[in-house]
Amino acid sequence: MSSIPSYALYGETPEKRWFETIHYEPISRRAKHYAWKIDPHQHDALVQLLYVQKKGGVVHLDGNSVSFSAPCFILIPAQTVHGFDMGAGIDGSVVTVAQKPLETLISSGVPALADIFDKPLVMALPDTPRIHKTLSTLFELIELETVNAGKAELNAASALLLALLVQIRRLDQSQHTLHPTQNSRKAEQVERFRALVNNNLGGLKTVEEYAEKLGTSAGQLRRICQEVIGQSPLHVINARIIHAAQRDLAYSTMSVQQVAYSLGYDDAAYFSRFFRKQTGLTPSEFRERVKANEPI
Fold first, then answer.
1. What percent helix, strand, coil does the chain show, rounded to 5?
2. Domains in the chain, ordered, with CATH?
């Protein structure tokens, strides 16, 4: 697979002010502009929530293809390679939001949702007026709160997003989700690898350690990751560590040394060098820029 492009929003420059990002638009706006086809890409720090209310199509998620039709809900976590082949006339709502602050809000408000961004979700919705009134109202209120995009509005929109995710989790628990039309064993292995990375922050670090846990070789894991998501397993590991580190630096009072230790680094200086190599900033510089509301 060739290199996968990263966007803030599809076709736009990567977002620098990720810590204050919430964006709403109708699905048709961008889909129509790109002739109802969105090529595979990813968002480094943004999660997308789509409420499809008209037509349908196929969504491609990390090597799997899933057919969907209205009404349905689609959740695409950060760093998920995804694309769409949409039916002409598709419509509904899509919200793109910075995943890190939303994760922090979840951890303090609704810990039961802590795993909701572990993997993508494509969920058919029952054609029940009450359910669609609830979802439509939440998306409409999120749109309203993002019009001015001041701090108060962003905080209100974040609270509404939390309420939306609670509704989706309840619906997901009450019914089966759609299944991939292409049963890809390799995609399943990548999903297992990503889950292992998410659940072992502060523990495993090397590709070889993860491969051993998965019962495969490091070479095979590298080949599968490159084929399915166009990334090396080391990139996935490092990206998840940086994701967690940025969240803790931005939204916790932990010292740099405490953040380093929580992620399995006994040497804070080594962690700082790793962080700077990945982001271009030291942990302290990153934290100061967030506090000053400056571009990252």
1. 50, 20, 30
2. 18-174 (2.60.120.280), 185-291 (1.10.10.60)
